[in-house]
């Protein structure tokens, strides 16, 4: 009998194919749009997070506890090379970078701007990721004396070109103001205009000479095999090296941790909003179907069809109406995401605005398979919930009154 009720529910949804088709297409488009938008924003958020970790923060940073409070160059990491060797023996650490660092003023003949000066050792295997964004020149190689790598935004502000002269002024380890003339060896252009304007790269030997100590290392940056384990790894390292400040990316940039933790929530919020809209559409359709078939439903009750089976019939109709469009919506969204995830969505027309927030101009939509499964479960629950009210209205019908209605 249960199979007959199910079969009757399936036949009933095709008694008005136009109306059922509209609902099925609405479900399909709603699911496609919801999943695609979720994949788009998921990729945008993940891309923003990864870009920031790769270019500016890393997964774990190690500094002298007093350095970041005052940016005084005398607060360097003691026995940094020995620490570096110990860290490189850890299997979970994929890459280590180190640098001396100072903050100062970059001056050209045209203008000046405050910058963070990174002293890089080009002989170390862990070269900074900014290399991949070099658009002109090279990474501190083409000029023999005091080369410098600057961002495109800073070059435009200071009106500098390749081989232009730039003066950096900053405080040395004794607290005196020192300065050095550098010549532009390369210009980089990353996804973050603010980073490009506020950071310059020089040789560590040149920076340390001006700072007054050739062995200075102010910051170690670690990249792990799994960045989500960074807080636990940082805590363990902090216990081993209590005299150093060891912080994970979430501690250094809480806004990035918030983005990471809220990405999944945001995706499900978008999908739930769309499903709620679909639920009301389905309820409206089923109520219309029930009202149109009042006479028929009364006849079924009069000939002995009990309320449980009537409830099951309306429930199955609503469930079929919803679930026919679901696999089509999932399929089309998967195809769309697969294609655009390969070729990307070019948003270079909005490059200026996106770069101001440190985002890429090409988005590659992507979504984990588990998300498709969870969406299917959500829609199944929504189908059942949307069936309850029309089915309840059916149960409230009285056979005699229903039969009299035309």
Describe this structure in words.
By secondary structure, this protein is of the alpha+beta class. Helices cover 56% and strands 18% of the residues. It has 15 helices and 12 strands. Strands 2-3-8-5-7-6 form a 6-stranded mixed β-barrel. The protein has a two-stranded antiparallel ribbon with strand order 11-12. The model has no long low-confidence stretch (mean pLDDT 86).
Structural class: alpha+beta
Approximate strand percentage: 15-25%
Low-confidence stretches: none
Mean pLDDT: 86
Number of E strands:
12
Largest sheet: 6 strands, mixed, barrel
Written as H for each helix and E for each strand, in order along the chain, the element string is HHEHHEEEEHEEHEHEHEHHHHEHEHH
As laid out across the biggest beta sheet, the strand order is 2-3-8-5-7-6
What portion of residues is helical? Answer: 55-70%
CA radius of gyration is 32 Å
Separation of the first and last Cα atoms: 29 Å
Choose one word for the global shape. elongated
- How many helices? 15
